[in-house]
């Protein structure tokens, strides 16, 4: 069979609730020259049956049903299985707008120096209703993206991206050490290899739900983002990246030794603490001890003091008292 123009890569784990509309939004694209790889990563719900049913109806769907190996392994398997030179990512709970593929493949055809193109998004809730979040929009140009790397701003929404498969493979694909932020690490590794951009059109409806990775694994995700940023600046300075061959990231306390210089662990604690100051779930869990360690490291500022009444509102008065005492103690130190 001739190779398609695009390979659509979707990994699913226990995704039966939103899977059908996600699949249908791909099948309804105005640009139809694609294969649709749907990998069921060992789901325990009805995901596999849904995938098989759609595959029986549309020959463009290539199902991969197997045991659970995790998202990073699944994404790399999809990259290896793709027959097209262009890969479009898609998540199992989002909705593609009909013109998404046409607009993105048209951009890549007209911009051979770009290896990755995403788009801006709209947010939807669990019922598919639009709502507004007070978040910064994704940058449009490669230069804006580099600026956002430097200032810790948004880069690309993973389920919106379309990329050149050879460019991503040359960068090593997705790295297992950066579980739950494997996409962010990939963008940072690609930043000096190719140009990346986002289309201004909102070509994907991004579903927000309590069960998504950014909520369930917020602490691990924020630590990984911080480490990937340190690795990015190491590479930019011409120094070796010690995370390149890691299967898992070491504990925060071991990061100074990993990077061969003092202060990395403190930097990662500060980055993670700042990122999670408004997360009720994170501050009710492991992030709180990390926050106290950040204060012991010398963390100061009004944002930390404002977290004290926030903890009370979160129903954590004992933690509010502990943080207040730590902040008072840091002033006296």
UniProtKB/TrEMBL annotation:
Residues 7-168 form the Glycosyltransferase 2-like domain. The keyword Transferase applies. Keywords: Glycosyltransferase, Transferase. GO terms for molecular function: glycosyltransferase activity. The keyword Glycosyltransferase applies. InterPro entries: Glyco_trans_2-like, Glycosyltransf_2, Nucleotide-diphossugar_trans. Belongs to the glycosyltransferase 2 family. This is Glycosyltransferase. It comes from Novosphingobium piscinae.
């Amino acid at each position: 069979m001739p190779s398609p123009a695009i390979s659509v890569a979707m990994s699913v784990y226990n995704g039966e609730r939103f899977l059908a509309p996600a699949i249908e939004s791909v099948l309804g694209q105005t640009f139809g020259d694609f294969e649709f790889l749907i990998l069921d990563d060992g789901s325990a719900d009805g995901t596999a049956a849904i995938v098989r049913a759609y595959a029986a109806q549309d020959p463009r769907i290539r199902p991969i049903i197997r045991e659970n190996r995790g998202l990073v392994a699944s994404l790399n398997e999809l990259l290896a299985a793709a027959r097209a030179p262009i890969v479009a990512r898609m998540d199992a709970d989002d909705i593609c707008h009909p013109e998404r593929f046409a607009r993105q493949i048209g951009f890549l055809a007209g911009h051979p120096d770009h290896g990755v193109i995403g788009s801006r998004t709209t947010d939807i809730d669990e019922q598919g209703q639009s709502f507004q979040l007070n978040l910064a929009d994704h940058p449009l140009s490669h230069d804006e993206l580099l600026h956002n790397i430097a200032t810790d701003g948004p880069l690309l929404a993973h389920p919106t991206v379309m990329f050149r498969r050879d460019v991503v493979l040359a960068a090593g694909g997705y790295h297992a050490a950066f579980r739950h932020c494997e996409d962010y690490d990939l963008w940072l590794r690609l930043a000096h290899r190719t140009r990346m951009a986002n289309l201004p059109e909102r070509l994907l409806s991004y579903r927000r739900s309590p069960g998504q990775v950014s909520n369930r694994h917020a602490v691990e995700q924020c630590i990984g983002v911080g480490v990937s940023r340190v690795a990015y600046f190491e590479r930019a300075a011409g120094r070796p990246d010690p995370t390149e061959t890691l299967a898992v990231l070491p504990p925060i306390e071991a990061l100074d030794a990993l990077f061969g210089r003092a202060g990395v662990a403190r930097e990662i604690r500060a980055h993670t603490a700042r990122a999670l100051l408004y997360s009720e779930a994170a501050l009710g869990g492991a992030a709180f001890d990390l926050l106290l360690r950040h204060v012991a490291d010398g963390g100061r500022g009004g944002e930390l003091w404002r977290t004290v009444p926030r903890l009370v509102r979160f129903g954590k008065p004992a933690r509010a008292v502990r943080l207040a005492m730590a902040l008072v103690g840091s002033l006296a130190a």
